[in-house]
Design goal:
alpha/beta, Rossmann fold, 7-stranded parallel β-sheet, 8 helices, globular, binds NADP nicotinamide-adenine-dinucleotide phosphate
Amino acid sequence: MSRAEPDLSAFSLAGKRILVTGANTGIGQGIAISVARAGGSVIGVGRSAMDETGERIAAAGGRFAAVRFDLSDTASAGAMLDRVWDESGPLDGLVNNAGIIRRADAVELTEADWDDVMDVNLKAVFLLSQSFARRVLAEPGRRGKIVNIASVLSFQGGIRVASYTASKHGVLGVTRLLACEWAQKGINVNAIAPGYIETSNTEALRADPDRSASILARIPAGRWGRPEDIGDAAVFLLAPASDYMHGAAVAVDGGWLAR
Ligand code: NAP
């Protein structure tokens, strides 16, 4: 007896155009590759060359375009998204992934360490979301999906990362607020809270044998996360399968927050 082919269309991004910030490396690269694998076209936005991401996506038969932009230029962030929309076509999804971290004891953290992190991790996230929503809402019937990359430090305090923790708590708050405002207008806003992922963001932790061992010992899954773990969760939040999800923070953390 032959079995019917599974219908995976609810998890497909075929025909969708997704903007991913910070797509040159780490989690953003993982998201870009997962989106392309799910059939989506990726527009990577970042301040560094994204050749490696482009090559990996092209090798898998996917579509990728790079837009060079420094997100610390918050005054121009909204206009950048408008330009992408006008010059290359409407967007179906926005993944606010780009982020920075500054590690220092709270008594040592400088004002610049506070402002720089807040600008990229929180202010740019809001301004890009606002710009994306303005364009979606301007076209009756158009829908959109926003996925913000939060952190387990959206729920926990952490240590020596004051501005980062504040920014990631803010990302969760803004995700919930925007979800409430836009849920009935055709835009889903959700977040992913990654645990400890092997990227340059966590290089300093992994280089410290004591910190590294104590973090690993606390992760129920018994391993650090990989960029593709986050990428595949992002596909779900960008695809029709998650149409009834609004304001959720999906922990992809090997069980860290469950502990
Ligand atoms: P990463 O490897 O350091 O990547 C950060 C990305 O953000 C890079 O593409 C970086 O570009 C980009 N970026 C930073 N500042 C930018 C700016 N001013 N303009 C444009 N792009 C900028 O770190 P990651 O771990 O993949 O981090 C991605 C996101 O996941 C961040 O929001 C981070 O907070 C979050 N996260 C990470 C972990 C983890 O364990 N790794 C855990 C929870 C949350 P450049 O390469 O040019 O700097």
